[in-house]
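A reminder before we start the practical. When you read a complex entry, don't treat the lines as separate problems. The point of joint prediction is that each chain is placed relative to the others, so the output describes one connected object in space. Small molecules and nucleic acid strands, if listed, are placed in the same frame. In the example below there are two entries. Take a minute to note the order of the lines before looking further.
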Amino acid sequence: MSNLIKGETGEWEIVIGMEVHAQVISESKLFSGAATAFGAEPNSQVSLVDAAMPGMLPVINEAAVRQAVKTGLGLQAKINLRSIFDRKNYFYPDLPAGYQISQYQHPIVGTGSLTIELADGSSREIGITRLHLEQDAGKSLHDQSPSSTYIDLNRAGVALMEIVSEPDLRSSEEAGAYLAKMRSILRYLGTCDGNMEEGSMRADVNVSVRKPGGPLGTRCEIKNVNSVRFVKQAIEYEARRQIELIEGGGKVDQETRLFDTGRGVTRSMRSKEEAHDYRYFPDPDLVPLVLAPEFVERLKEELPELPDTKKQRFVRELGLSPYDAEVLVAEKESADFFEAVAKGRDAKTAANWVTGEYFAALNRAGATIAEFPVSAEKLGELIDLVADGTLSNRLAKDVFEGMAETGKSAAEIVAERGLKQVSDTGAIEAAIDKVIAANADKVAEYRAGKDKLYGFFVGQVMKAMGGKANPQALNDLLKRKLSA
Amino acid sequence: MSLDPASLTIASARDGLKAKQFSAAELAEAAIGAMQAARPLNAVLVETPDRARADAKRADQRLAKGEAGALEGIPLAIKDLFCTEGVETTAGSKILKGFKPTYESTVTANLWREGAVMLGKVNMDEFAMGSSNETSAYGNVENPWRRPGDNRPLVPGGSSGGSAAAVSAGFCLGATGTDTGGSIRQPAGFTGIVGLKPTYGRCSRWGIVAFASSLDQAGPMTRSVRDAAIMLGAMAGFDPKDSTSVDLPVPNYEASVGQSVKGLRIGVPKEYRLDGMPAEIETLWQQGIAWLKEAGCEIVDVSLPHTKYALPAYYIVAPAEASSNLARYDGVRFGHRAAGAKGINELYAKTRGEGFGPEVRRRVLIGTYVLSAGYYDAYYIKAQQVRTLILRDFEKVFGEVDALLAPTAPSAAFPIGDKADDPISMYLNDVFTVPVNLAGLPGMSVPAGLSADGLPLGLQLIGKAFDEATLFRVGAAVEKAANFTARPKPWWRA
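Here is the predicted structure of the whole assembly.
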């Protein structure tokens, strides 16, 4: 699939690198004991350290370090056993100390990689440059008063991982897939909840354009994009803007831009000239972070199965199609749900149910797996009723609808509605006989070679039996009777 | 009143309290009276007499129950750089005027735990930046010492000038100081008292307003070496709230005082012999060498070849860290906020312009400059490399000797105003003290003699990392030999 886009002067290639900021799942902040829960009363989760009171000192939170290392391992990355925290200095009211503690030259995680799957079934490996730990800033609230800005420091000091990719991405689709895959891996690892609406994951997107094979163009950084869809839109817009600018005889200025989600455009935020001089230097309040090799080894052993491995297992061991496997492993919850349904059952059937009826119903309800009334256990029982012939596939679908609406079990609905499939050959035979008797002309036509009429007879018999006839038994008997 | 705190030491007061010669309440009352009488020195920013009385009452109860701590009932003055819960803490700056911390620094909390009595918060150079106490937003501190026949006020040294004046004048038995480039040792030298800067990491920095985080260290200022040992024992210890504090047991420092120094090897670094240094400083140094030789030490000439780079490196590293540490004083959350500012940038500029004095502004500018893109490698990185070389010099020398002997400062106390307009000459005051901070080592100033015009001079002992014990041992030997009994005349009582 070609990623090139056409301009006036020919084709252009987009070059994209991403910086993903992911909030670490951790009880307390990166350098203080304050809590990190989302949505708390403003300034109710602020320690003396977070408010940068005089004489306060940061102390590294081991849980956050563990999360960063786990994430590094999940990205097949090099774990740096010695890393250093630096101060990034700038003035802003929601940055109480006047500096953010981050990692500059010596991050905790080095180079790694992540594989993205594309719509055409191909996959690409995207390089990870580094992952480092840093503090989040607080929040400025400009809408509380006409004349003042209010500050909420609940988020100040919360641990973030900044994950930087190589400029390996070549299209908005790839960038979207990268972000989605990153989110999926972080959620599998349990190191970030990936909740982009709440701001626990956001991306800075670096975009430049060039003639295919030519030297890299000047890049613009689009700050704080908070959904896969917006990432794609922002890149589409920004690439077009740069191409038109260059083709119009202009030149791209290196700058920081913002994506206006309402209008779908990017806007200049600050130019290179206005860029801060952050005056990074090692934080003298902290000693270098040194990890024991055994600490990393232990985390490696505890690492859960990640989406790529899980997908391979689903295909190789459970016989799923790569497509179904991909759909199922995208979210850990889906994969776990599927595995619970498939346990002790035919995996392909389970996959069909989960990716088919179940996901469709989930989407219609706009619910999460945890919220939806049909549990894996209940879906499994429904599948069992099909397998033992109690329900036809068609009946099962009706029963599933009922389960989704009422939360009842399949057995309860079957009993209530009297939906039990009829496998009694006597009853089916009687119904067939009636249909044959009532349609003598059609029987004659069928016997004369008009095979297409077979479906008509099946339909008539099913109708006569209220849809409850065991399809296999009906089929066997009908064929015998018609050919008699 | 018969009880005069100036005639006591921590050790003698401890004995007096134990023997019920006087109560902690009586001692506190005497100290409060002496403190109030010494107001002309401008050493105290906040007097806390009620607190002192309450502390003393509790001390008497604990003494009666036999539960006395190491400093039970001992009146101390606290440098205003230490955050004290509910007691205004300004760091000598206008920008923190009115700031009352809701928390207590670890070091002061340790002192209260051991039963010490708080007399008040004492003056200092603004944010500990200064060598004469002239940069305080709350006025100069005057040295209790004056040249005989000369009424010109002298500086007490800095930045712990209020602490030094308080101990020297005698209204408290000890004071906390902090030392980033000599701020304990130089004022101790200028006022004829003992001042110890412990090894970096020995005392917690938690709750001490930061100047230069990689150099700052709290220490005791007392009237005897033994007192410094007692007080350090209470101040020191591992603190999980300070990542740079070191988890090593605190030895019984007092036990080192009086131990023989026979056979100890004392290094004399030739690079501390400066051109143009007053002859009396050299003479005192030679005297110190003779004393220690007499006490059985072996004197070894040593070389610390990178010494001359220490002062310039210090005046890059310390301002660099300070420029970042002081960014939090922005008028947003606490302390001074400029009135009438339009917009956030103006609020910052006006607040900081009004709140910081000229020396602090100078160092914030220097620090910001040396960390800037394009200058970072030439200044900050180079200074860090120098720092490594200085540490290596010391490590090499400490392979051969147990401690070093050097002067504390290149001169005795000078008149207020003499150097205030000449920052370079002021910075030169720190020439013998900053290498110790850059290397993170312990250093102690012991009063050793008087200058030709009758002012105290100190000798400095420098030890191996975490070997304060040897400093107390050697310091006590110097103290004994020097027999420095001179006291300032209490002109302020007149």
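Discuss with your neighbour: The CA atoms of residues 29 and 53 of chain B lie 7 Å apart. What might explain this?
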